Amino acid sequence: MIKPQPLVPAALALLCAPAWAQVYRCPDASGRTVIQQVPCAGGQQMNVKPAAGKAGADVAATRSAAAALCEAALRKAPAWKDPDSVQISDVVRVGFTTIQLHGTTLAVVKYGATTNAKNSYGGYVGQKPAFCYLNGTETKVLDIKVF
What we know:
The chain contains two helices and seven strands. By secondary structure, the chain is of the alpha+beta class. The chain has one domain. Strands 4-5-6-7 form a four-stranded antiparallel β-sheet, with helices on both faces. A three-stranded antiparallel β-sheet has the order 2-1-3, with no helix packed on it. A hairpin with a 5-residue loop joins strand 1 and strand 2 (33-36). The radius of gyration is 18 Å and the shape is elongated.
C-alpha cells in the first residue's frame, strides 16, 4: 500500500499566499458599506486594519483558541464519510482575506489546516487542505472550505 506524503505547513502556506492582501471598506451605489480588496471608486475609502495593542501572550492565546475553534468546525464538516476517522493537523493562521457570505463581502481571518479522513471503503484518502474563516476578533467560525 502506498503511504501518502504529508502536506507540510510550507506547502500549505504557498496555497494561501494571497491572503495578506490589503482590504478596503467602501460605500456601494445604495450607500451600504462593502469590504473589498481593491481601492474604492472616487477615493472614498478606509483601510481595514487588525486591532492593535494586544500583548504577545494575549495574541498567542487568541490564536490558540481560534485554531481550536477551526479544528472543531472542521471535525463537524459534512464532507466526511466517517467523521470519527478525521485527522486534522497543522492548523495555522494564514492572514486576512475577504469572503462572500449571504450576499455580503466580509473581511475575515483565515486559518489553514491539513485534513485526512476515511472514504466509503474504509481507507484514508490522503492529506488535503482545508480552511476556516473567522470573524475579526477570531472568536467565531463564519465558514469553512474542505478540498
